[in-house]
């Protein structure tokens, strides 16, 4: 048990140091954004009404890069500092350059997509690949198939987080909550399958992700003083997806140990759970835009967070509500690993039911209001009709007497 907390302290120190560096660099990024007039323009679909600088993601990427390099000096982590780390650093560099370029010049979506594929391809070429499909544990033995699937997963996750980055603090907060659930799962999984080496690439990446977002969030929560821009959203997706792929790779290499106390469905269930909001929003956006015969990358005001604000929630309330959804789904999934399934499923269903009611509350209140309003109007119309009939009766009576 002592070793558990000693090793955990190493990862928590990485989280804290990354957060401090991200926190220190973000004001500098804001200053550069203001001086360079790198603003997010005010458009009809946007929630802000004044220009806000958007280079915050560069501070996050630099913090991750600095700590990822410094962590190589920790003897405990030396075993994972091989070719994959170099690939991850290069992918972060590609994300940083392409993201800053897009923030400056608003690149065409094809160029942005090519940059995402390049970053994902570098990760796959470095050896971090989907080696087994966690549905029935179907092994993927073909190298080309591994690379294609890995690129697809990473690009999908990058765009999912890019799509939900529409409210102050939403993407970074969702990444912290979902990333922390994944961090706990990955750490416990590593200790379960290997009693001698607790270093793990997925755990390290999620620690870096959590730290970068924690340091940035104070400046980004409503009312935001800076946005993460393309760099931040793509960095979150890159790290989250790479960590998920790394877990499947680890499990594929440790055939004899992977099912010990670990449900076989968790490596696919948990990434889907912690990213349920970004993926759902991405899926709905693609369907919506395809139906309108526009590009899936074209922006609009039809995202989940827009609907909540339009429905009656304030900016902060909508963000906090989406935080709750992420927490319940993400931690509900990871709890299946450590608690009886019946208890976890029951508690999660109750929590989700309450969240559904809470989410629909503005629409329910509005519907009740209009129902009362219609009843009041109907009553007034009936009263006017009754008064009109009475007046006509009096007039007829007077005419009869005359």
TrEMBL record:
It is a multi-pass membrane protein. Its cofactor is Mg(2+). GO terms for molecular function: metal ion binding; phosphotransferase activity, for other substituted phosphate groups. InterPro entries: Glycosyl_transferase_4, PNAcMuramoyl-5peptid_Trfase_CS. Keywords: Cell membrane, Magnesium, Membrane, Metal-binding, Transferase, Transmembrane, Transmembrane helix. The chain crosses the membrane at residues 12-34, 55-74, 80-101, 113-132, 144-163, 170-189, 201-219, 231-252, 264-287, 320-339, 345-364. It holds the Pfam family Glycos_transf_4. It is found in: Cell membrane. One of its GO terms (biological process) is cell wall macromolecule biosynthetic process. One of its GO terms (cellular component) is plasma membrane. Mg(2+) binds at residue 162. Its main location: membrane. PANTHER family: PHOSPHO-N-ACETYLMURAMOYL-PENTAPEPTIDE-TRANSFERASE (PTHR22926), UNDECAPRENYL-PHOSPHATE ALPHA-N-ACETYLGLUCOSAMINYL 1-PHOSPHATE TRANSFERASE (PTHR22926:SF3). This is UDP-GlcNAc:undecaprenyl-phosphate GlcNAc-1-phosphate transferase.
């Amino acid at each position: 048990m002592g070793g558990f907390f000693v090793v955990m302290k190493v990862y928590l120190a990485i989280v804290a140091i990354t957060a401090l560096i991200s926190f220190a660099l973000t004001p500098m990024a804001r200053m550069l954004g203001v001086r360079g007039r790198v603003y997010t323009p005010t458009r009809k679909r946007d929630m802000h009404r004044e220009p806000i600088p958007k280079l915050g993601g560069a501070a996050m990427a630099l913090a991750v890069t600095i700590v990822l390099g410094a962590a190589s000096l920790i003897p405990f982590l030396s075993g994972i500092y091989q070719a994959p780390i170099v690939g991850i650093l290069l992918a972060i560099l590609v994300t940083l350059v392409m993201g800053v370029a897009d923030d400056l010049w608003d690149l065409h979506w094809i160029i942005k997509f090519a940059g995402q594929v390049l970053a994902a391809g570098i990760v796959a070429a470095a050896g971090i690949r989907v080696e087994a499909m966690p549905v029935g544990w179907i092994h993927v033995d073909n190298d080309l198939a591994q690379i294609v699937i890995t690129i697809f997963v990473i690009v999908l996750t990058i765009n999912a987080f890019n799509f939900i980055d529409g409210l102050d603090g939403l993407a970074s907060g969702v990444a912290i909550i979902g990333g922390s659930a994944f961090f706990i799962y990955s750490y416990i999984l590593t200790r379960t399958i290997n009693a001698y080496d607790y270093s793990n690439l997925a755990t390290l990446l999620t620690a870096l992700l959590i730290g970068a977002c924690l340091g940035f969030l104070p400046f980004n929560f409503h009312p935001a003083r800076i946005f993460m821009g393309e760099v931040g959203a793509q960095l979150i997706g890159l790290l989250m997806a790479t960590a998920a792929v790394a877990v499947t790779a680890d499990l594929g290499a440790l055939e004899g140990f992977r099912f010990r106390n670990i449900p076989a469905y968790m490596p696919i269930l948990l990434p889907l759970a912690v990213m349920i909001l970004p993926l759902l929003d991405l899926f709905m956006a693609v369907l919506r835009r395809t139906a309108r015969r526009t590009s899936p990358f074209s922006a609009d005001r039809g995202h989940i967070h827009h609907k909540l604000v339009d429905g009656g929630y304030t900016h902060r309330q909508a963000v906090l509500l989406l935080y709750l959804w992420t927490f319940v789904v993400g931690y509900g999934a990871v709890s299946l690993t450590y608690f009886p399934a019946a208890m976890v499923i029951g508690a999660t269903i109750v929590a989700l039911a309450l969240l559904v009611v809470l989410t629909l509350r503005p629409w329910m209140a509005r519907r009740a209001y209009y129902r009362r309003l219609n009843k009041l109007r109907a009553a007034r119309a009936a009263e006017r009709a009754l008064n009109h009939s009475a007046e006509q009766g009096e007039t007829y009576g007077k005419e009869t007497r005359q």
